[in-house]
Amino acid sequence: MIRVALPNKGALYGPCVELLTSCGYKVKKPTKGLYFEDSKNQVEFYFLRASDIPMYLNKGIIDVGVTGEDFHREKQSQASKMLDLPFGHSKLCIAAMENTILDDSNQVKSLRIATSFPNLVKQHFNSTGLDLVELDGAVEISISLGLADCVVDIVETGATLKSAGLKVVGEPIFTSNAALFSAQESQSKEDVKRFIDRVNGRLIALEYQMVEYDVPTNLLDKACELTPGIQSPTISQLKNHAWCSVKSMVKKEDAHQILDQLKAIGCKAILLTNIEMARM
């Protein structure tokens, strides 16, 4: 039985549950408590604050966890990043009141900065002499309350900052996404390796599609240049020896252009299907 930590709420919660459900895991946050056991797959799921998960991983209390790259770096966790995940994209930005004259991030060094990410702020400015106001949340209200002159906070859509009368100053100081991390001492566990393989297989399935088509034998090499596959395409001889059948994985973002090109060179019966799961 391995222990897996997932964010208990927020923008990471829903995509995490959806991803792991598609990997065959039974994942459900209980109405009461923060623990759910998938006995069939030998996994204990713990629903924790995303910002706390790096600490649990660092201490080896949890084997695997999903959290943001920003939380991982802020907590200076020694856990290993195993996979980047295709959700939870955000930016850590400097923001000030809309009527501010600030237009350069370097101008804030001498100001009071409210943030939940003091370590990332210090790293960005390469300074330990900043006037930081450390908060656990609701950072954007600190300026209007007179606690700070500017803030450094996570920006996803910008709606929260705008509603507080704030604007982003300069470029983001850190960009983040969700990732799958493993405690150092857990990486050699077979159940952990299997868990990571499942998630990786689903990510591959989301990135690729399967294309199948019939191609005249004399055009086979040209068609395979368009669909080289991961290692190599699967080629089968048809009853009509003048034709072959080809099956290959293609990047989803390129799939429709490849289908157009296959038809243009003379391929027939071209099919495109989604991949549910993969093992590479």
UniProtKB/TrEMBL annotation:
Catalysis: reaction(s): 1-(5-phospho-beta-D-ribosyl)-ATP + diphosphate = 5-phospho-alpha-D-ribose 1-diphosphate + ATP
Keyword Metal-binding attached: yes
Domain Histidine biosynthesis HisG C-terminal: residue ranges: 205-276
ATP phosphoribosyltransferase catalytic domain mapped to chain residues: 49-200
GO CC, alphabetical: cytoplasm
Cofactors, names only: Mg(2+)
Listed InterPro entries: ATP-PRT_HisG_long, ATP_PRibTrfase_cat, ATP_PRibTrfase_CS, ATP_PRibTrfase_HisG, HisG_C, N-reg_PII-like_a/b, N-reg_PII/ATP_PRibTrfase_C
Molecular function via GO: ATP binding; ATP phosphoribosyltransferase activity; magnesium ion binding
Keyword Hydrolase found: no
Sorted UniProt keywords: Amino-acid biosynthesis, ATP-binding, Cytoplasm, Glycosyltransferase, Histidine biosynthesis, Magnesium, Metal-binding, Nucleotide-binding, Transferase
An example Gene Ontology biological process: L-histidine biosynthetic process
Activity regulation info: Feedback inhibited by histidine.
Pathway recorded for this protein: Amino-acid biosynthesis; L-histidine biosynthesis; L-histidine from 5-phospho-alpha-D-ribose 1-diphosphate: step 1/9
Main location: cytoplasm
Superkingdom classification of source: Bacteria
Compartment annotation: Cytoplasm
Known EC number: 2.4.2.17
Family named by the database record: Belongs to the ATP phosphoribosyltransferase family. Long subfamily.
Physiological role: Catalyzes the condensation of ATP and 5-phosphoribose 1-diphosphate to form N'-(5'-phosphoribosyl)-ATP (PR-ATP). Has a crucial role in the pathway because the rate of histidine biosynthesis seems to be controlled primarily by regulation of HisG enzymatic activity.
Protein name per the record: ATP phosphoribosyltransferase
Lineage: Bacteria, Pseudomonadati, Pseudomonadota, Gammaproteobacteria, Oceanospirillales
